[in-house]
Amino acid sequence: MSDPLPKSTAAIESGIAQGLHIGAQLYVSLPGGTVADLAIGESRRGVAMTTDTLMLWMSATKPVTAVAIAQLWERGLLELDDRVEKYIPEFGQKGKEPITIRHVLTHTGGFRAGPGWSNVAWEQIIRQICNSRVEPNWTPGQKAGYHVATGWYILAEIVQRLDGRAYPRYVREAIFEPLGMNDSWIGMSPEVYRGYGQRMGVMHITESGSPEAPTPEEAEQVAVHCRPGGNGHGPIRELGRFYEMLRERGKHAGTRVLLPQTVEALTARHRTGMLDQTFDFVIDWGLGFILNSNAPGEDSMPYGYGPYASRRTFGHGGHESSGGFCDPERGLVVAFVFNGKPGDAAHHARRGTLMRAIYEDLGFAT
Questions:
Q1: Whose CA is closest to 315, among 285, 338, 339, 337?
Q2: 259 phi and psi, to 5 degrees?
Q3: I need a surface site. Which of 47, 48, 134, 201 has the fewest CB within 10 A?
Q4: For all residues of the chain together, what is the average pLDDT?
């Protein structure tokens, strides 16, 4: 069978030859069906990467949390411009009182510093964030800066307090399982993790050109501790299925997860023309989604979608490794993960090469 995406495959294989990663998964679909569901190289040394391998999505996880909040909005349990302190009273201190749910979703709240991806107890993480101060010279909503972890713990805590289910259970029951994303998780039990065995892929550090794998204990911790903005795991085609639901205006294979107008709200421009203090780049944002903010024909936006993506393209990247997006003007869904983190500059170049190759393979390079 001929390769449906020859330039894209070549780009991935070139990265393996350069030592940027030892394997990758790529999923591409159009409204007529799946174009490619590819697994190339190794998931770890001596173990082949397959399309069933569960890979770490890093911050490509964040839109799942945004959808969870949107479901509560549909249920009438919250409003986007409600203050966070309405649902987490202890959050409303030290200058954070005016911060709204919309501010958190658009990274304009101003409480970036915090526990990061900590392995301490959930309650301790929430307490630490609530006790933090808003950043100096930051008026919520009037300044922007990507919150790597803090905002997403707060959004997940709101979900838990309003719905009653623990966040990992909520996303399984309300998002993943209805969409047939049966091997997708944001935090899993040690028993589930160990049950997957060699289906669990490994994310390597490759800045030196030689892959450095985490210890088995470290890899298990990354999967088991719930990190709502950063440790989604699953075969990358399942992240693609999540974006197919959004492309289909809230439903997939007959199962509705969101209303069409909710998808429109999530992917509309809520933050425009603001310099992101974390990325040092002007990036427009939806509600939890990064919107294409490149100038036409450019590919300078961090974690962007390449020079051919339409202005309406929305999605999210994962730290030096992964991403998912929908280009609604072409009906295109892409999800990808490389299992090597080579540094921001090398990943930017690698990602850009792959994005260009995908659009050229599909005849969308205009």
A1: 285
A2: -75, 150
A3: 48
A4: 96
Please give the structure tokens belonging to residue 29. Answer: 């679909």
Do 120 and 78 fall into the same domain?
Answer: yes
Evaluate whether residue 173 is within a structural domain: no
Give 362's pLDDT tier (boundaries 50, 70, 90).
very high
> Nearest 10 degrees: CA dihedral of 207, 211, 214, 215?
-140
Unique residue bearing structure tokens 């047939």: 180
**CB contact at 8 A, 140 and 108:** yes
For 165, other C-beta atoms within 10 Å of its C-beta total 14
| Total-model pTM | 0.97
Say if residue 258 is in the same domain as residue 274. yes
Residues 162 and 259 in one domain: no
Same domain as 132, residue 82: yes
Domain final position from 149, 167, 185: 167
Sign of CA dihedral 129, 132, 134, 136: negative
At residue 119, the pLDDT reads 80
Contacts of residue 219, defined as CB under 8 A and 6 or more positions apart, other chains included, come to 200, 202, 213
Poorest-pLDDT segment among 19-33, 89-103, 116-130, 177-191: 116-130
Give the model confidence (pLDDT) of 234-277 as tens digits: 999 999 999 999 999 999 999 999 999 999 999 999 999 999 99
pLDDT score at 118: 72
Residue with tokens 């921001």: 344
Most distant pair of Cα atoms in the chain: their distance: 61
* Tokens matching residue 124: 């301790």
* In a shared domain, residues 119 and 78: yes
Angle at CA 224, nearest 5°, toward 173 and 250? 30
Q: Which of 59, 63, 169 is nearest to 122 (CA)?
A: 169
* Residue 19 belongs to domain spanning: 6-59+197-361
